[in-house]
Amino acid sequence: MSSRAAVISILALFVFSGLGIAATWTHVGTSGFVVENPSQIRDYKRVVFCDMVKDTAGNIWAAVSYSSDGGASPEPRSSGVTIFKPNFASKIDVDLKALGYPGCVTKLVVGGDGAVYALQNYIHLEWSWEVTTSRILRLQLNPNNTVTVNMIYSPGEAVPWKSPPENRLGGMAVGDDGNIYWTQNGVSSYWKYHFFWRYDTAAGIVEEAPREAGTVECGKETHKMLDLEYVGDGKFAVVGPYYNWDWQCNLISWTQPCVNIAENHSNPTWGRKWNTANAYDPVRKVMWVGPRGERAESGYYYGYDFFNLNRNTGPNTTEIIDLGGGNYGIRITCSDGSQRGFETDWPGVPSGATTMAAKFRVDSYSGNQQIIYVYNNAQKAANGHRCMADIAILGGKFVLRDRGSTVLADLGTVVPGAWNEFYLTVDGDNDKCKLIWNGNTVYEGPITYTTGGGWVGWNFFGGNNIVATYDWLGVGAGYIAPGEMSTKYHRWLDGSYHPMTNFFLTNIMSRFDGSMDNPTIFDSSGKIAGTKVWHVNGYDEVNSFVPGKRNGGIYWVQALEVNPYTGEAWFAINAAPNYSYGPIDRVMTIPFSFTGTRPTLGDEGAPEPGSIVMNLMFDKDTDTMYALTCNPVTGVYNLYAAHIEAPGPLSIARAKDYRPGLIVQTDAPKVVTYAGDTFFYIEDADRTAGIKVMPSASSSIPSVGETVNVSGLLDVVDGEAVIRYAQVSPVGTGSVEPLGVTVKNVGGYAKGAQPATDPAAGLSNVGLLVRIAGRVEATPIDDLWSSAVGFRFWFTVDDGSGAVTKYWDTSGTQQTVPGIKVMFDPGLAGVSVGDFVEVTGVVGLDFSYKFDTGTGMKTYFVPGQRIIYPRTEADIFKYQSAN
Description:
By secondary structure, the chain is an all-beta fold. Among the domains are: 317-495, Sandwich (Jelly Rolls); 652-736, CATH 2.40.50.200; 769-880, CATH 2.40.50. The protein starts with 25 loop residues before the first strand and ends with a strand.
């Protein structure tokens, strides 16, 4: 067969059977400690902390909190330590409380002397309960299986909550030198003087970091836990809250004070307050920080509340009442003569039209009343119009009014104790109102509107001098018909929630990213490369509400660990008893690479169905993930193990079946099929797959025809699977033949790490050396990118497939031309529009770039757009000229 023949090849599809399958958990041990009050492990104000480490002798140490909380002056969550001997042949239980060290252990580390060090610095996650004593304990397992426990440091006795707080330890970590490092709040100052300390495990002495007198380190928060992680190269990271939801990841070392750097912050502006778990990935240079979520209260949290609590005050009351048959409702009593009740305020429903519906009765009243009103969300209305309608009592009758004045419909006489049901829609997009009252449409027509404000939706129910009972009440987006509100609501009350505890809430997690080209997460100036934020369970109640679905209760990241092979974060949540979004007994995974704030989570199963996963630990010696669980009914702690398959050297085809985050090592030398300025492509010898390689700063670009071994991070950049931060080792030389494809089949559907191209047809060939044939359709000379980099022009080719290429011209206007993009100067290739050509090159994806056309720096990118990369002009064969 001619090497220039256009052949459509059927590519082999490899699927790795181990991907996407939940872990298999095996019970390996039970702690001798049982939680005295098991219900407390789901208390969001007094979060329970546990930790695990493996020592140099192969023992697994598990710190478990077991004691009850003591109330106003509590003994907070005292811990015991269970030591599981190698192969789980036996265990040893060490009761720290009985040894005179009450308090919860929040972290364990193994020192250079082989001993285990325990940090006791527990704090309730509500400031008014701050009364703990901080200390660091040294636990030495002796040959006779006894354990010697000594306190190596304490800043002093705990001082009940005050401002500033006193005698607080923040976090603890072990350095490469085997010494134990910790942070503290400076004993008697809110600011961080005398902040960084260590215990020299060889000399047995405590030292303060050398600082000039008066040095203030880092930022605002001093009383939080888990604020220190070791990141390598003698450097540590101060992580967690800087102030409320604004979190930091700042550099500190023994010789370098911690300086706050604004670029090292992550601030989603709401949705969290305390970090409850950290995990550092030293390979990928990323720090995962897990939070406790927050309800969003009126005023302090910018009005994210579900029902505004400030309206029903004074002599007015709201209560849940029994309506019989297991049905509960809400009764509002407004008796002070002023407008009272509850409002649903910011952020409004995600629509220009809002429906408020309820089944209610008036038990008693006096005088005229405005009992319901509805404003639409003008921010979501295309025209910005804000309309308002209300249901009122005037002269003993229910009426519908436009903006509280013009009566639109008479709804009949008020009968105390009689139930009424209504669906009231206010539509700002069309300046209309519709009311369905007791099953009948009584008004559907125009209403007035206002403009000029950035109003959100606003709904009220209540009144003045009235007692009213609501069987249920809902607010939803758009037009909602009778019977639909219970499944289409945005806000809802039916007696299962009291308005005083019914909040929008979420839990927004952060990841701080470094570059794998650096020794640690920090560059030479102490900065990180970027951050990610997302909703831990993938659900955002405020901005992407699913009708009828609620988080219900506050939840937090209880356990967090990194799978070192895939880069995924394995985590488990714990939650208040009213949490209702999903199960909390499972180990979930967050992919290393994702976009947006709602990543698709993986599921590694429930180690012990019905029990909370309190801690996770990966053992690199045995490729095992350990999960420590606690049963919320019995209080029993159990230990489970799951084997994690370590991927060995891989073909490119097999590697691309994994999710991004994998550290790839090629299984054989791969031939280089294209070499650019900052990247190159390699391909399997059997032509099943190819991939783009972006080498590390220490590696150079090989030449086409060389064979190389490659190891690096599997990732996705601009929609294309790549190996980033690659170490490249030249081996020899080689070659592969191009694969003949039609223009339509260039690119293809998604396959593992490689997303689908746009358009997509057939199996993915992104990264492969291919050959296409067709007519030259366009040779643009006004491409913004070409101008930005020095006039590196390109042309397009089509074979009748109908391909198009989009680009931005030099004015910043997007243009579209026929054909697939060929990244080679048509002048050098000697081709022009109308020529028939055959092009050999590697399939890639178009890339993003930034440029300022005079209106500010902008990012230009066409997602999924296909490119052919010829190597030289010899890859472009013209077999018929236009003339």
